[in-house]
Amino acid sequence: MQQSLHILRSVFGYEAFRPPQDAVIEQLVGGEDALVLMPTGGGKSLCYQIPSIVRPGTGIVVSPLIALMQDQVDALEQLGVRAACLNSSLEPEAVRSVERRLLAGELDLLYIAPERLLGERSLALLERIELALFAIDEAHCVSQWGHDFRPEYLQLSMLHQRFPGVPRIALTATADSATQREIVERLGLEEARLYISSFDRPNIRYRVQPKGSSVRDQLLGFLEREHRGNAGIVYCLSRKRVEQTAAWLNEHGWTALPYHAGLDGATRRLHQQRFLREEGVIVVATIAFGMGIDKPDVRFVAHLDLPKSMEAYYQETGRAGRDGLPADAWLVYGLNDIVTLRQMVGGSEAPEARKRVEQRKLDALIGFCELVGCRRQALLGYFGEQRDEPCGNCDNCLEPVQTWDATEAARMALSCVFRSGQRYGVGHLIDILLGRATERVQQQGHDRLSTFGIGTALNQTEWRTLFRQLVARGLLAPDDDGFGTLRLTEACRPVLRGEQPLPLRREPRLGRARRERGSRPVLPFSGGLGRLWEALRQRRRSLAEAQGVPPYVIFHDATLREMVEQRPLDIAALGDISGVGRSKLERYGEAFLDVIREHEFTDEQEHHDARR
Ligand code: ADP
Ligand code: ZN
Prior knowledge:
The protein is of the alpha/beta class. It contains 29 helices and 17 strands.
């Protein structure tokens, strides 16, 4: 363990392990297997990187994400770790060079795509070298029910038969126990020790807001208030909306790139590359974007449409803040979203059993949106993790929600649906409640209904909110006709009869939501410190560009931030900063110290001049 800790400090520049990293590493160094379930950003990579360095021979890392392998290798090389990758994107000459280094025992780590590893050529190669371990990353790809299923993963169990003495570690950020069982079974990991860490992502602030009259303005307001210059992802359901939103953000001075399955491969790759390599780029995407996006400094994930389940929401929002600095998960939703998704699930061709599961998953997510209590407690609770205290870092904790007794209003709404024959959408129903004698209302004779004009105590927006909440609670259901027609459900009877009180969330007025308490720009530095921060980023950018690597491969934001706070003036002090290991100190120490010293000097000068 001494040796592992020494490597953590000298190579990676980190002070201490985050449990259970230490236990996992000890297990592998001792030659035993491990299965690690840890959230995104939890620090899975160190669990196999350090044992690969400590143990004799090469650690083989199986990963399906070949687009990201080179970045991982670049990052390790920056740390002075000998790493390479083998995948279909390499030229034959580069492949031969990697193979030579492998045979010469010159590699601590080799990243390889599963289909490549399983080829006879690779297996024969591995038989000729010493192996430190096998790491199977994104291990949930063996799950046939999951959305990332890769058939090649099923064959990885043969590694154990062919290389029986080599320890194996499987890693995933997917938490549920069914997937976990599948991984054990299909990879033959019965002997592996299981390590599960909390799936909480404390640095992510969860917020859910109702859609106002202009969703785009809401998004723009959020970005301008809190995310100037930050990188982030905006998710939309349809390609068209992705394109429109990206174009619109560009018009307003943001660098936003569309990403969806309808774009050709080259464009998609380019946009992903720009997102990784440049700073402050926003990707507007359908869910097709994001699996395995390793970018640590994604500062926000915004949803303009509802995800399909809590699992999807957790996974998508989880792409924010891998570096542990404050990050935002921001979602807006409205009645139409619920109606559309309910109809999509209800009207699909899938077998009934499957539809029921999907409906339940969607309901859980909608319930999460309408929640009055702590969002984090609910999110973790959904995954079976109990949390006793509210988190203090979600919208409901920061600004406790008021409830009101909506029983009477709900009865009006429900009976209005009933009396008009369960054949209308929300717009018409609200017209009736508010007593608006529109042409359609008159044509249908709805101005003669007993519910005509009984709802003037609430305004249009408040009625819409109430209808949304009734649909969300399953007291009203959209028809399968695709027109947003609402009908009553069994569940609404007790409410309609006045037997069941209905306390509902009171929406903050949008005007107030705009001035939300607790909103804060991420990473604020002002004055001289702000200038230093920018100058350090500039230095990092030029070093990164010169080598063709993403800036975060040089130093993470968290490390630059600590430089601004500590302002080290010599190599020893700089080496104490988290994320500054031996190799980076040698390569970049002076370059960053120069920037810091220069700023100390100019700032002092400024003070001096100001005093005179
Ligand atoms: P995962 O693969 O689980 O999503 P990573 O391995 O990419 O997470 O680690 C997430 C971030 O946490 C990285 O920036 C990594 O350098 C950092 N990290 C990991 N372990 C530690 C540690 N013990 N101390 C400080 N930072 C760490
Ligand atoms: Zn909370």
